[in-house]
Amino acid sequence: METPIYDKGSLQAAFQDIVAESGAAQQKAEAEIKDQIRGKYGEFLGAGAKASELVEIESSYDEFLKLPASAREDRAKKIIEEFKKLDGAKTPINPRFPNASATENVVYLYSVARLESRPDVRKNLTAAFKAANQ
Predict the structure, then answer these.
(1) In the prediction, which pLDDT does 125 show?
(2) Are 9 and 64 in contact (CB under 8 A)?
(3) Which of 12, 30, 37, 76 is 20 to 30 A away from residue 113, measured at CA?
(4) Of the candidates 80, 49, 53, which has an alpha carbon nearest to the alpha carbon of residue 64?
(5) What distance lies between CA 33 and its chain's CA centroid?
(6) Using the 8-state DSSP alphabet, how is residue 95 labeled?
(7) Secondary structure of residue 41 in the 3-state scheme
């Protein structure tokens, strides 16, 4: 928006310029952050699932996180094994980090499962948590 000639050099014009510049800077920063996330984690960006869809998987994940570190890694290996059986290799497990630990892979799959667009991962990971706990 062009500042009227009578406002140029006024305090009001200065504030308008600052607001416009900060809005543009914020949009640029948000775009850069999304690009970095895509670069690190792939194209799994999207809207999150509804809270009602996450109740079961969140409780399983919380229990998993409460385990001592050594037991958590062993449980994570079982969860990944079960998930692979259920998923049929449709979902890559942490494709950017092939040498990630089993725990890191479970954390990655949980982040994917929280997306609205991935109910299949949410369902299979929930089932994998249950099977690994037996």
Answers:
(1) 95
(2) no
(3) 30
(4) 80
(5) 13
(6) T
(7) helix
Considering the domain boundaries, does residue 46 fall inside one?
Answer: no
Q: What is the reported pTM?
A: 0.65
Q: Which domain holds residue 83?
A: 51-133
Rg of the chain on CA atoms, in Å: 22
Query: Quick one: which of 124, 43, 134 has its CA closest to 80?
Result: 124
Q: How many domains does one find in the chain?
A: 2
Q: Is 2 a member of any domain?
A: no
- Rounded distance between C-alpha atoms, residue 45 and residue 34, angstroms: 8
Same domain, 79 and 20: no
In a domain, 119, yes or no: yes
Tell me the pLDDT tens digit for each residue of 46-91: 677 888 889 999 999 999 999 998 899 999 999 999 999 998 878 8
Q: State the alpha helices, DSSP H only, in 42-68.
A: 51-66
- Token pair belonging to 5: 């000639």
Mapped onto helix, strand or coil, the DSSP state of residue 100 is coil
With a cut of 70, say whether residue 43 has pLDDT above it. Answer: no
Clarify whether residues 26 and 85 are in a common domain.
no
CB-based burial, 117-133: b 16+ in 10 Å, e otherwise: ebeebbbbbbbbbeebe
What integer pLDDT is reported at residue 73 of this predicted model? 95
In a domain, 62, yes or no: yes
